[in-house]
Amino acid sequence: MLTKQYAGPVAIATAVVVYVGFFVLLLGSGPAVQLFVPAGFSLAAALGVWLLAGRTRAEHASASVDLAREQVEETTRLLDATVAAAKHVRSPELRARVADARRQVPALLQRVEDTQPADLLRSVAVFRPHVEGLREAVTRFATIEADPTYFADGAQQLADGLAAVQQFNDFTAEATRLVNQRALPAYRAHLKSATSSGLPELKGQG
């Protein structure tokens, strides 16, 4: 990563390369054009490199946290949509487990931001697809629950749906425990253990 330590030398080198390149390109264009046009482009290039290279690690980290916060907000909206979908479910167990997920996930991500902000983007990148899978599972659960006879093994699929939401909550609870213990290597390993969906797919056959 370029830092302020190298901003000056890199900017000067860039300016020289740009100047020479445009100087050669504009041979025969007249002294004024050949001198001042390359100078303008080289100055602009050097300034751009200076601004980029001059960003500190803290500034890069801040930009990463800002991006992560946007993803957290989107994940929270997905959780709200999941809670709304659960309102169409008759099962009090499923509704309670979805409410638990809505409480746990934002609390965990806030805890990560408070204690290890460098891991916030990594964390939300794992949890967002889980939350999307959770919403899809709840929507599917409501469809099957409305008339299980239209689905092969409808009752079993409903049981699997309940288990899937509990699996998600257990995963989140374990992640929270590791963050609270400041067990960073174990927490990162836990995140890596997640599958791309984290939830079994509920397939219906009608």
Task: Write up what this structure looks like.
By secondary structure, the chain is an all-alpha fold. It contains seven helices and no strands. The relative contact order is 0.10. α1 runs antiparallel to α2 (31-53), α4 runs parallel beside α6 (154-180) and α6 (154-180) packs antiparallel against α7. The chain has helices at 4-25, 31-53, 57-86, 92-115, 120-146, 154-180, 184-192. The N and C termini lie far apart (55 Å).
What is the element string, with H for helices and E for strands? HHHHHHH
| Structural class designation | mainly alpha
Q: Quick one: how many beta strands?
A: 0
- Beta percentage is under 5%
Roughly how many Å is the radius of gyration?
A: 27 Å
Question: Helicity level, as a percent range?
Answer: over 70%
Shape: elongated
- Poorly predicted sequence stretches spanning 5 or more consecutive residues: 201-206
* Total count of helical runs of at least 4 residues: 7
Main sheet attributes: strand count, strand direction, barrel closure:
none
Tell me the span between the first and last alpha carbons: 55 Å
Average pLDDT number: 79
